Amino acid sequence: MTAMLVISFGIAAVLLLAACVKADRVRGWRESLNPSAPDLSDASFVVGRVIFLIMAGVMVFTGFDLLRVSADSDWSDDELTSAVGQATDDLDGWMYRDDGLTTDSAYFDDYASLLEDKVVRYGGGGAPESGVGADPADTNTDTDAYFTVQADGADAAFCTHIQRTRRAKDDYTPPGVTGGEGTLTQRAYGLAVTSREGAC
Description:
Largest sheet: 5 strands, antiparallel
Oligomer: single chain
Order of helices and strands: HHHHEHEEEE
Helix content: 40-55%
Number of domains: 2
Distance between the termini: 32 Å
Mean pLDDT: 82
Strand content: 15-25%
Structural class: alpha+beta
Radius of gyration: 31 Å
């Protein structure tokens, strides 16, 4: 991408310089290279300058378009900072229930995917819809986990801490098949989420 930017703006600069060359100088070059060549009219130089300027404008537009695409394909520190903050606020206090069939632990433990999806969602219109990673700490458990959140193009990193707690008061037992009281209780769990700048 960087090479394409350099080429685009480089060509534009060359074309602008070509458009600024005086007619007498061009005539002198032509005569020294080919004395028998027919003389160029002033109108030809005007048309040539217009063409060079148009082509230079196209190359400048292409360069800025490449800059926009480049900006949209990478995260900035500001975008990541804002997205992590909003994702943290959204997940802090988030509650879910299991399916009532498991007995050892809650079924939900994929915090990394949850965190990555939330950060991408809050990236805003200028941020890409990918490129976010939540690297888990080696000491993580289902109930207490740390993740280093980073994104492509951003130098910033954030340490996000997720704690899961049981919320028995929010358990729910759906009605049975016949309409009476059901037998499977959906157990409730809540997340407490905090983030700080820097890797975990």
